[in-house]
Design brief:
Mean pLDDT of chain B: 92
Low-confidence stretches of chain A: none
Shape of chain B: globular
Helix content of chain B: 25-40%
CATH class of chain A: Alpha Beta
Number of strands of chain B: 21
Largest interface: A-B, 23 and 30 residues
CATH architecture of the largest domain in chain B: 3-Layer(aba) Sandwich
Bound molecules: flavin-adenine dinucleotide, NADP nicotinamide-adenine-dinucleotide phosphate
Structural class of chain A: alpha/beta
Strand content of chain A: 15-25%
Number of strands of chain A: 7
Strand order of the largest sheet of chain B: 16-12-14-13-19-20-18-21
Strand content of chain B: 25-35%
Number of helices of chain B: 13
Largest sheet of chain B: 8 strands, antiparallel
Mean pLDDT of chain A: 96
Structural class of chain B: alpha+beta
Largest sheet of chain A: 7 strands, parallel
CATH topology of the largest domain in chain B: Vanillyl-alcohol Oxidase, Chain A, domain 3
Low-confidence stretches of chain B: 233-239
Number of domains of chain B: 2
CATH class of the largest domain in chain B: Alpha Beta
CATH topology of chain A: Rossmann fold
Oligomer: heterodimer
Helix content of chain A: 40-55%
CATH architecture of chain A: 3-Layer(aba) Sandwich
């Protein structure tokens, strides 16, 4: 059960090795989170992530999760919820990929970042609705608001996910379940390793702090850093001919 | 039957449940037996602040249709959903009053038993359970048993937050009163020591202090009251005078408005005064403003009420709160007498302080966690009827009766049919 300050006691991370999600988990475990479920593809990184959170005092479970295996999602998450309430679900799976004009690669990006994330989110939304309370945190991106040449396939997938999450939020209104859409700019994580940082770059810890504040204030959408809300409002309105000339 | 989003009086953590309003004990029993996997919990008038009367994804039985009562000689026999306000309304013209009343009269008999509520007269009269002769408890198997002081089920249910079963009927002992009036003596106290001295030395049946925790020294106002003779048939209970409109933005209440409010309120009080006052005005001043909990806006508010034995504990917590910069409106300070036998009952001998905070006040979650520690260090506890944020680990430390409570609950309800958001949050 979320407490009055929306500090969750149990947390499910979809994409359990994500740097952003794990930074958030560490922060929430320092508050009230006692049960953490990491859903991810089995790997050494996953084992390490679980051990790290156990070291902070959380009871951690891992479950195998492949974003593209959408047929399994209901069962996978159904089992997680059957073990006990989940107060917050953090959907963090995604791949940035490259901007090569390769149809197969593009479909892979979309099938993890959009289709897989959407299917997992829906499976969890249904379970949360049964439970009568909880919050879905969906990691979108500022890229959802305006694609750049460097990431337009990923951006299109995030645009789909973002729009899906907003609609879901309306559908869930009054159900006791809330949706928080998170739109970070460039974040230094393994996803962006080696890439030149964009303006207003931030860190996983900064995103974690913003997510925590967003939960507490029951926000519907947050930008990280917050200034990106204004920046994107301007960029969205920029004529394409000018936008195209911007770097990246 | 309908689905509804239910919250406590603080409006902070709503959850959705199937709500049933049984019109008879048989209907209630059927609802409990058909509860399903996420269980069932009783709900009275929803005046507890946090999440004890809600059960996300499960069933909530609203008891307010089971509200009949009768006055028989020296006893009141009331159904679990009868409100204390209605009992008082019937008792007062007969020269009787309830022995224990909380700060609002909109509380059911079942809610008063489940929280084992206390009033401004705890040192003199104890808590609600001390005046309950017996009650009927509907347990998980659908059967009803009559429970009396001394029975295990009695001491697990008084203070047990609805988790042992549903109280369907209770027999209470009212007290005689000479009139519907109280003689109230009010005194302004310039600092916390002054307040404590005044309360400690009080010989009145009822005593309460309102503290301004934002002031440097913890100034306050002490009200002492005793039942008194007076002209009969004064309107002891009035309906609400004011009502707070439903849509108020959050954030209106902050440190500045709180300081101003507390200041005005302190300065308006007489230095000392003695007056006659109707019962309602003394016991339930807030009931005159309907839905006053809405002034905090949609994010809601949190009440923090703790009890600590006499000693430095109270001052430690008050100082911590004062220094924190988190806005707190008038805090209510009372003395508590020796603890009763309820395993999870709140009152222990010493002081109890209740403070209201806007839920979104920056730094509040961390401040209250620090206060929990100070309360634990002093050998105290927080009140479950007000709680919405305690850490589960703190509960067994604050309530040594918890282990015994769990054993009895397991006997009464082996399948864990009675469930609530509070129980899940605190791993009760
Ligand atoms: C303005 C205000 C002032 C207050 N002042 C005081 C005070 O001075 N002293 C004090 O002690 N408390 C005080 N309270 C708290 C209040 O008295 C308790 O929370 C009380 O339990 C509320 O009763 P209710 O009928 O509204 O119950 P609810 O809030 O609906 O439920 C509270 C608990 O009782 C259980 N319950 C309800 N009915 C039954 C039943 N029939 N059988 C079994 N369990 C049941 C519920 O499951 C839940 O756990 C105050 C509250 C307010 C809003
Ligand atoms: N970093 C940024 O600049 C940035 C900016 C805005 C938004 N975001 C979004 O934030 C979220 C978290 O990203 P991050 O920065 O923390 O990157 P990250 O550490 O790379 O996390 C991405 C996660 O997605 C998982 N994943 C990838 N393919 C998967 C698949 N087929 N099945 C299951 N899981 C799969 C990865 O798990 P494996 O370990 O199994 O690969 C990893 O846990 C993502 O949705 C990302 O799009 C990131």
């Amino acid at each position: 059960m979320n407490n009055a300050f929306r500090d969750p006691q149990s947390l499910l991370i979809v994409g359990g090795t994500s740097d952003i999600a794990l930074a958030t988990a560490r922060l929430l475990v320092r508050r009230r989170a006692r049960r953490v479920v990491l859903a991810a593809r089995p790997s050494e990184a996953l084992t390490r992530a679980a051990d790290g959170l156990r070291g902070l005092g959380a009871a951690v479970e891992t479950v195998a999760f492949e974003a593209t295996a959408v047929g399994d999602h209901e069962k996978t998450f159904g089992e997680v919820f059957a073990e006990g309430d989940i107060d917050v679900v953090l959907v963090a799976c995604g791949v940035l990929g490259t901007n090569a004009l390769d149809p197969v690669k593009a479909a892979e990006i979309a099938s993890v970042t959009y289709v897989g994330a959407m299917s997992a989110t829906l499976a969890c939304a249904n379970a949360l609705r049964e439970q009568g309370h909880g919050t879905l945190v969906v990691l979108s991106s500022v890229a959802a608001e305006r694609p750049r040449r460097a990431n337009f396939v990923y951006a299109s997938a995030k645009a789909g996910l973002d729009s899906f999450a907003q609609g879901l939020s309306d559908v869930l209104h009054g159900s006791g379940v809330q949706v928080l859409v998170v739109r970070p700019g460039f974040v230094h994580t393994k996803m962006t390793k080696g890439l030149p940082p964009a303006p207003f770059a931030s860190t996983p810890d900064a995103v974690a702090v913003a997510i925590h504040a967003g939960l507490r204030s029951q926000a519907g959408t947050i930008w990280v850093p917050g200034v990106l809300r204004l920046v994107m409002a301007v960029l969205r309105r920029l004529p394409r001919a000018i936008f195209r000339r911007l770097p990246g | 039957m309908s689905d509804a989003l239910l919250a406590g009086w603080g409006r902070t953590s709503p959850s959705r449940a199937r709500v049933l309003r049984p019109g008879s004990v048989a209907e209630l029993a059927a609802a409990v037996q058909a509860a399903g996997g996420r269980g069932v919990i009783a709900r009275g008038l929803g005046r507890s602040y946090g999440d004890p009367a809600q059960n996300g994804g499960g069933v909530v039985v609203d008891l307010t249709r089971l509200r009949k009562f009768e006055l028989t000689g020296e006893r009141i026999v009331a159904e679990g959903g009868a409100s204390l306000g209605e009992l008082i309304r019937a008792l007062v013209p007969r020269g009787r009053f309830l022995p224990v009343v909380p700060g609002t009269r909109h509380v059911t008999v079942g809610g008063a038993v489940a929280a084992d509520v206390h009033g401004k007269n705890h040192p003199a009269d104890g808590s609600f359970a001390a005046h309950v002769e017996e009650f009927d408890l509907l347990t998980a198997d659908g059967s009803v048993r009559t429970v009396r002081p001394g029975d295990q089920a009695f001491h697990a249910t008084t203070g047990g937050m609805g988790l042992t079963g549903v109280v369907t009927r209770a027999v209470l002992r009212p007290i005689p009163i000479p009139s519907p009036l109280l003689r109230v003596e009010t005194r302004r106290c310039r600092d916390l020591d002054d307040v404590l001295t005044r309360l400690s030395g009080s010989t009145a049946r009822y005593a309460v202090a309102w503290l301004d925790c934002l002031s440097e020294r913890g100034r306050g106002i002490v009200d002492e009251a005793t039942h008194t003779e007076g002209p009969a048939a004064t309107a002891a209970l009035k309906g609400p005078l004011l009502s707070v409109p439903p849509h108020i933005p959050g954030g209106l209440l902050n440190r500045h408005t709180a300081t101003l409010f507390n200041h005005l309120w302190y300065c308006k009080a007489p230095r000392t005064s003695v007056r006659s006052m109707p019962l309602g005005a003394y016991f339930h001043p807030l009931d005159r403003i309907r839905d006053w909990n809405r002034i905090y806006g949609p994010p809601g508010f949190v009440q923090y009420q703790f009890a600590v034995p006499y000693g430095e504990g109270l001052k430690n917590v008050v100082r911590r709160i004062g220094r924190s910069g988190v806005p707190s409106f008038l805090a209510v300070l009372k003395r508590l007498g020796p603890a009763g036998e309820g395993l999870l009952s709140f009152p222990i001998e010493g002081w109890t302080l209740a403070l209201d905070f806007p839920a979104t006040a920056p730094g509040l979650p961390e401040l209250l966690d620090a206060c929990d520690q100070a309360v634990i260090d002093a050998g105290g506890r927080v009140y479950l009827a007000k709680d919405a944020r305690l850490a589960p680990e703190s509960l067994p430390v604050m309530y040594p009766g918890l282990a015994r409570f769990r054993e009895i609950r397991a006997q009464l309800d082996p399948a864990g049919v009675f469930q609530s958001d509070l129980a899940r949050r605190l791993r009760l």
